[in-house]
Design goal:
The protein is α/β, with parallel strands linked by helices. The chain is 33% helix and 27% strand. The protein has one domain: Aldolase class I (TIM Barrel, Alpha-Beta Barrel). Helix 8 packs across helix 10. It is globular.
């Protein structure tokens, strides 16, 4: 069995690390490059960066941050936010990232996924999904709707249908972020995570809601996720990456210990 991955998530706005709850109330909490270096030293398996306002502001990604991070860490990292073309993907990958995450741009232009997969391989294309629980309907039978532009725009798109389509187009991994759980530290949205994991053939990353080691354990076992994103729980010093992994190991979850 492959080891489960623990992935710190760094939201970046105007070159600074920021964190909010349910996509609002964001506060400046430090330097993303220094934070990435610290998480690398603590044993993170990968790191994810999101430029959280790039799509809404219709601008490019923070390449200077990407280049600085690449010079400080020796683990894979992915970058998302404002990536809307193959040339933009190439710029991010050439700056040192191993993967790109596409979210709003892929919803607006699904062929972007396939174009990226052809150019760089499916392993380099991560589908980011920001998802909100809604009443189930004919249009949204799963009861989960895709929301884009940093949580600002509902799409009428069913989350499960979109995940299946994106994988068929060439996405090699899916990061499932629950807007309802984001920043709450009350646990991941396990039903949503399991729904996507059981119905797609690529690794799924659980995102939104980590507060305790048992939350990660639940996402990685009951939720069927291959990896768990963590943010507030490590940004504010409640746990270190090494501490989370130690607790997961005690619970019987296979993780890479350092």
């Amino acid at each position: 069995m492959l080891s489960k991955r623990i992935i710190p998530c760094l939201d970046v706005r105007a070159g600074r690390l920021t964190k909010g709850i349910k996509f609002s109330g964001n506060a400046d909490i430090g330097d993303p490059v220094e934070s990435a270096a610290r998480y690398y030293e603590e044993g993170a398996d990968e790191i994810v960066f999101y430029d959280i306002t790039a799509s809404a502001e219709e601008r490019g990604i923070f390449l200077d941050v990407v280049e600085r991070v690449a010079g400080r860490i020796a683990i894979p990292f992915s970058v998302g936010g404002g990536i809307s073309s193959v040339p933009a993907m190439r710029r991010v990958l050439n700056a040192g990232a191993e993967k790109v995450s596409v979210n709003s741009a892929a919803v607006l232009d699904p062929e972007l996924i396939g174009e990226g997969a052809v150019a760089f391989g499916s392993q380099a294309i991560v589908l980011g999904m920001d998802v909100k629980a809604v009443p189930a309907s004919r249009e949204i039978p799963s009861g989960y709707e895709i929301v884009i532009r940093g949580g600002r725009e509902f799409t009428g798109l069913d989350a499960l249908a979109w995940a299946v389509k994106a994988v068929d187009l060439g996405a090699g991994e899916i990061c499932v972020n629950s807007i309802d759980a984001d920043g709450t530290k009350a646990g991941y949205e396990l039903k949503l995570t399991r729904l996507i994991a059981e119905n797609t053939r690529v690794p799924v990353i659980a995102s939104g809601g980590a507060g305790l080691p048992r939350h990660l354990y639940e996402a990685l076992t009951e939720g069927g996720a291959s990896a768990a994103l963590v943010a507030s729980v490590v940004h504010y010093g409640e746990y270190s990456i090494r501490g989370l992994k130690s607790e997961l190991h005690k619970l019987g979850c296979k993780v890479r210990l350092t």
